[in-house]
Amino acid sequence: xxxxxxxxxxxxxxxxxxxxxxxxxxxxxxxxxxxxxxxxxxxxxxxxxxxxxxxxxxxxxxxxxxxxxxxxxxxxxxxxxxxxxxxxxxxxxxxxxxxxxxxxxxxxxxxxxxxxxxxxxxxxxxxxxxxxxxxxxxxxxxxxxxxxxxxxxxxxxxxxxxxxxxxxxxxxxxxxxxxxxxxxxxxxxxxxxxxxxxxxxxxxxxxxxxxxxxxxxxxxxxxxxxxxxxxxxxxxxxxxxxxxxxxxxxxxxxxxxxxxxxxxxxxxxxxxxxxxxxxxxxxxxxxxxxxxxxxxxxxxxxxxxxxxxxxxxxxxxxxxxxxxxxxxxxxxxxxxxxxxxxxxxxxxxxxxxxxxxxxxxxxxxxxxxxxxxxxxxxxxxxxxxxxxxxxxxxxxxxxxxxxxxxxxxxxxxxxxxxxxxxxxxxxxxxxxxxxxxxxxxxxxxxxxxxxxxxxxxx
Length: 458
Hints:
By secondary structure, this protein is an alpha+beta fold.
């Protein structure tokens, strides 16, 4: 059942969900992942198969004797998993059981080869998480042997011991596999937990429908629900159904995660509504190159110099009232912000006095990456920042002169703020201890794809 355990961890790692009204995500667990699951699944399967055996009633002598039998160890040299279309996963495991029979005058050691066959169905659980269940399980036993050519045991006794062991293990091994899967389902249930996005915001994933299983992959449709103060973020227009094309990302990767345009839009709307994109920009008062003061502005705007004969600090209050716009084209992701900037000076009574306000349009290049289980972003300015005067309390403003100053004092603080914010990342679907390994992000028309390996770490 190792296959179920490993598969479950995989499923858990990539479990997102696509919905009719919420931003869609599609996660595919590809055939390449099964080899990794087979490798990491051998150890838990070996532990699960080390069951307790009842006493053997030895009738070979003149008196009936009860003999204790103990499994010394179980070695699984081979574990093979494969997808079964419209069903789930099939497991084949070859195991060697080493027993110790505590009989007089000296203990006896036996080796018994066993082949386990199991079919695991992958379905959707009642709490919208993946559920794995064993629908069929069989144990095929080889012939027991005595290591090192031990010949002091009669063939008749070996036959009786083997019959006893087979009768017990035929039921217990499949029960152990089933229990292993049940424990895995508890682990998969952590998928629906809330993951923080900011101090007052979270993201939650849930499966939309039954997984799609082909001979090459399992595909999971997942809804991403973004919450602000416990309330879901709803896009101004209904989210469209997201269908992930078959051949995207890196060929032969373990996991392929498709992220729809709607998911990006919802995340940006969340940041805007939470006020996370807003910032106040101030200058260093004791710095010789501080341009955020009335003296610097006064050299460009005479009325500022007249109202403030003494140099006073200036503050830029940057507010995003409009939703940021993310655009995804093949190999190119951009972000457009339209902040409103109010320029204020500190008056002699320490109150703020509004000088003028600006409408700004900033176009940014957006680079996407993944760290462990978080999607992160980095931005840089594309072209010139567009600045127009919205209102003025200091008369006419010559924007040709002010544009260069505003670009200098505004662009870098904005980019630093955005990159710090986007660098915190947003959690992708995951379960505890399972991470994306060597991920690559590809941008296509209207969606992005994460191609990645998987890494399970305790």
